[in-house]
Design a protein that fits this description.
Two copies of one chain form a homodimer.
Chain A lengths: L1 H28 L6 H7 L4 H7 L3 H22 L6 H18 L1 H8 L3 H8 L6 H19 L8 H20 L2 H4 L5 H17 L2
Helix pairs in contact in A: 1-2, 4-6, 4-7, 4-8, 5-6, 5-8, 5-9, 5-11, 8-9, 9-11
Chain A binds a DNA duplex through helix 1 and helix 3.
Chain lengths: 205, 205
DNA sequence: TTTAAAATTTGAACAATGTTCATTTAATTT
DNA sequence: AAATTAAATGAACATTGTTCAAATTTTAAA
C-alpha cells in the first residue's frame, strides 16, 4: 500500500496547493479578478490540472468557503470560555467584525456570494454545516442571556437571527463600500463604533 | 428646432427602452445572467447600439441603481407623514424589508453590488446622493426619537448606521439564501419576524 | 428631385474567461 | 524492456464584454 498511499498523499497535497494558490490570489486581487489560468500559473501547473482536482471554479470557492468557516468557527468556540453570556455575546460580535475586516474577501465569499450557495443546492440540500455550527454558538449564547433575564418577551430564533443580521449588515456595508458612500467618516472606526452602539442596545433589560 | 428636438426625444426614448429591457431581463433572469446581447435582442436592436447609448454594462447598472433609489426614496419620504418618530422608524424598516422582498435584484444592485460603487469612484467621488438622501430620512427619524427620550446615551450617527445595518443585514441574508441555509424555517416569515424583534429592541427606553 | 453630408445602426471581430478532452508525458507493473 | 496505468497538458470551444469600420438611414443642400 505504500505507493498507493504516497499517491493519495500527493493528490491531497496538490489539491491543497491549488487551494492555497487560489486563496492567495483571491486575497490579493479579489475573487472575480482571479482566473483559473492565474491559479494555474501561480502554482506552475496547467489549467487542465486544476480541472482534474476541481470540477469547476465554484468547487474551489466552496472549498475555501468551508476553510473560512473552520477559522471563524474556531475563533467563536474559543469564546465559549467567557462565562458571562452577555459579555460573550459582545465578544462574539467583536470577533466577527474583526474577522470581516481582516479577511474581507473570505467574508464576502462566506456570507455574500451566491456561487457557493448554488453549489449547495445542486448537492441536494447538503447541509451548510459550518454555517449552522457558527450560528448555533450565537443562538446558545442568546439562550443563556435569556436565562439571565435579558431579552424578556423575545423569541430565541428570530432574535438570534436579528443579532446576526446586525453584525452581518455592518460588515457587508463596510466591505461593499457603502459606509464611505454615505459619508460616515472613517469606515473602520464607524464599523466598530456601530457595534458598540449595538452592544448598548442589547444590554437594556 | 423641431427636428433637433424630435431627435433628442427619440434618443431619450431609445435610452429608456434599453433600460427597460435591461431591467426586465435583470428581474427575470438575474443580473449576472443578463448579457448585452440579451438586452439588444429583447429590444430588437444590435449590440452596437447599446454601446452607443451606454459606455459599458456598469453604466446600465448604475442607471438602474439610481432608478431603484428614486423608488425606495419615494416610499420612504411618504412615511415622513407618520408623526410619531418611533412609529415611523418601525414603518421605515417594514417598507425597506418589503422593498427588498419585492425587488430582490434591484435591492442587490443597490446595496450589495460592487460594480455601481466602482463606477462612482471613477467619476471622482461623485456623490451617492440617492443613497445619502435615503439614509438621511432614517437619521432624521432617529434624531427625533432621541428628542423624545429614546436612545439615551447613544450617538446619532453610529446608532443610525447600526439600525440600517440590522435591516440591511436581514435583507441581504434573505436575498443571498442564508436564512434557508441555517434552517430558520420559511425565509420570508423569519425576515418579518426578525424585524419585529428588532422593533421591540428599539422600543426599550 | 437628386446629391452630398451627417447621424445612426450594425454585426463581424477581438480579448478574456471558464471549460473540455484528445494527446503527451510520467510512473508503475509485468 | 515493454506494456499498462495514471497524471498532466494546452490547444480548442463557447460565451462574455467591448470596439469600430462599414452599411444604412436621415437630414440638409443644390
Amino acid at each position: 500500500m505504500s505507493i498507493t498511499e504516497r499517491k493519495a498523499k500527493e493528490k491531497e497535497e496538490l489539491r491543497a496547493l491549488i487551494l492555497q494558490g487560489a486563496k492567495k490570489l483571491f486575497v490579493e486581487n479579489g475573487i472575480e479578478q482571479t482566473t483559473i489560468r492565474n491559479i494555474a500559473d501561480e502554482i506552475s501547473y496547467s489549467v487542465g490540472t486544476v480541472y482534474v482536482y476541481f470540477k469547476d471554479k465554484d468547487s474551489i470557492l466552496h472549498e475555501l468557503h468551508t476553510l473560512g468557516f473552520k477559522q471563524l468557527g474556531g475563533e467563536m468556540r474559543v469564546l465559549m470560555s467567557v462565562a458571562e453570556p452577555m459579555e460573550r455575546l459582545a465578544a462574539i460580535g467583536r470577533v466577527y467584525v474583526r474577522f470581516a475586516v481582516d479577511n474581507p474577501d473570505m467574508y464576502d465569499l462566506m456570507f455574500n456570494m451566491k456561487a457557493p450557495m448554488e453549489f449547495l443546492k445542486k448537492v441536494e440540500e447538503e447541509e451548510w454545516n459550518e454555517g449552522k455550527a457558527t450560528f448555533n454558538v450565537l443562538k446558545t449564547t442568546v439562550e443563556q442571556c435569556m436565562a439571565q433575564g435579558y431579552f424578556a418577551g423575545h423569541q430565541l430564533e428570530p432574535l438570534s437571527f436579528t443579532i446576526w443580521s446586525t453584525v452581518h449588515g455592518m460588515c457587508s456595508l463596510y466591505i461593499r463600500d457603502r459606509i464611505k458612500a454615505v459619508n460616515l467618516g472613517d469606515p473602520e472606526l464607524m464599523l466598530f463604533a456601530a457595534h458598540e452602539e449595538f452592544v448598548k442596545l442589547l444590554n437594556k433589560k
